[in-house]
Amino acid sequence: MRTLLGIYYRLGHVVRELLKFGMVGGIAFIVDVGLFNLVLHLTEKPLTSKTVSTVVATTVAYVGNRYWTFRRRTRSTVRREYALFFALNGVGLAIALTCLAISHYALGFTGRLADNIAANGVGLALGTAFRFWSYRRWVFPALLPEATAPIIGDPLRRS
């Protein structure tokens, strides 16, 4: 137990960011999947549907991540951050589209369930891992000094 607490106190900011990232991602996921299925129902074009839903979900995710998840990190201009955020989401989209294209066109799994598993299951999981790493690395790179300060009352802190 003491070891787990030690890890938490040393990596607490990463744990908190990861949890917040997950919550923001959950909301963006709902937007993404809902819009994907709506556009797919209206157009029957899976790649177009995924592109549209990802663009909207990216905007939702940027706002949540900038103002909540990574609020304790250094900032640059909104224009620079959003452009970089959007570009990195483009890579995440490419990952999801690749999974969807392989499943739908190469393997012939053309049902809605198969499209959702490929795009919103496998593609999303791989894209999410890339996004968390890349946002921390390039969009919101450095922690502000107060974010890494020792927690008052930390039972593992040696004075």
Quick structural overview:
This protein is an all-alpha fold and 159 residues long.
Instruction: Please state the structural category.
Output: mainly alpha
Low-confidence stretches: 154-159
Please indicate the count of domains.
1
| Percent in helix | over 70%
Euclidean distance between termini CA atoms: 21 Å
Order of helices and strands: HHHH
- Extended strand count: 0
Shape: globular
- Percent strand equals under 5%
* Biggest pleated-sheet summary: none
Average of per-residue pLDDT values = 86
Radius of gyration: 18 Å
Tally the helices: 4
What can you tell me about this protein's structure?
With about 160 residues, the protein is an all-alpha fold. It has one domain. The chain is built from four helices and no strands. The chain has helices at about 1-45, 45-70, 80-105, 110-140. It is globular and about 50 Å long. Residues about 155-159 have low confidence and may be disordered.
Question: What attributes characterize this protein structure?
Answer:
77% helix; single chain; 0% strand; 159 residues
Q: Would you spell out the secondary-structure blueprint of this structure?
A:
Layout: H1 2-43, H2 46-69, H3 78-106, H4 112-139
